[in-house]
Specification:
This protein has 231 residues and is of the alpha/beta class. Helices cover 35% and strands 19% of the residues. The longest helix has 17 residues. Bound molecules: 2'-O-acetyl adenosine-5-diphosphoribose. 2'-O-acetyl adenosine-5-diphosphoribose (OAD) binds next to helix 1.
Length: 231
């Protein structure tokens, strides 16, 4: 096929070599913090300060981080591939953008965005958000980090589903395949006959569903895969 349509899903593993911790690896974020406390609407209602502090710390860390060869290779693929490339990330950092990607779908939200829970207005988050910060649109004291928490619906699922229905190649990079709906994208892609490839340090939970499994660091596997696609 001359110009295959490609859908890429990235997870925390692609940012690991940029110094940002993953969630489920040993010593990862979910070993240090309880999901129920920092990544659910109920946790935010119970203790907004804890949640705002958690994302402020992650925002500060992400602001210092620099993209690695994995992010940069995907930006090159987007720029040079003649077919469609949809880059979907579960990551809330902006390392794909810093690596040169112009169109990145942040299905789990973004650290550099704030959201009003009253009117749904979004605006660029300051480096430090405060509890009960006022919304610049409706003035209600209802700002929250623009992160999709457990129990909430990921963003832009229609666009992702459309792209998966037309995909010729689906690649999952640095994601453990634990969190749905993202972990189910491989099944949707397989269903339409797409080639599927996993690039991960350790095999993900759903590794058996992929045709092509490449073990290794994203900074090595991703540039090699991109070279193959671009020929
Ligand atoms: P995980 O922490 O669950 O998985 C990270 C994956 O990256 C693992 O499979 C590792 O083997 C792999 N990995 C680690 N270092 C790597 C490297 N240098 N190169 C390649 N792979 C590497 O992170 P996610 O799958 O992204 O959601 O987690 C999915 C979602 O769960 C997150 O978006 C977050 C979390 O709870 C929310 O907060 C809503």
């Amino acid at each position: 096929m001359a110009h295959p349509s490609i859908v890429i899903l990235t997870g925390a593993g692609i940012s690991a070599e940029s110094g940002l911790g993953t969630f489920r690896d040993e010593g990862g974020l979910w070993a240090q913090h309880r999901i129920e406390d920092v990544a659910t609407p109920e946790g935010f209602a119970r203790n907004p300060q804890l949640v705002v502090d958690f994302y402020n710390a992650r925002r500060a860390q992400a602001a210092e981080a620099v993209p690695n060869a994995g992010h940069i290779a995907l930006a090159r693929l987007q720029a040079e591939h003649k077919g469609d490339v949809l880059l979907v990330t579960q990551n809330v950092d902006d390392l794909h953008e810093k690596g040169g990607s112009e169109d990145v779908l942040h299905m789990h939200g973004a650290l550099n965005s704030a959201l009003c829970s009253a009117c749904d207005h979004r605006w660029p988050a300051p480096l430090e958000m405060h509890v009960a910060q006022a919304c610049p649109n409706c003035a209600a004291p209802t700002a929250r980090p623009d992160i999709v928490w457990f129990g909430e619906i990921p963003y832009q699922m229609d666009r992702i589903q459309d792209a998966l229905e037309r995909a010729d190649i689906f690649a999952a990079i640095g994601t453990s395949g634990n969190v749905y709906p993202a972990a189910g994208f491989v099944q949707m892609a397989t269903h339409v006959g797409a080639k599927t490839v996993e690039m991960n340090l350790e095999p993900g939970e759903n590794v058996a569903l992929f045709e092509d499994v490449r073990a290794g660091k994203a900074s090595e596997t991703v540039p090699k895969w991109v070279d193959e696609i671009l020929g």
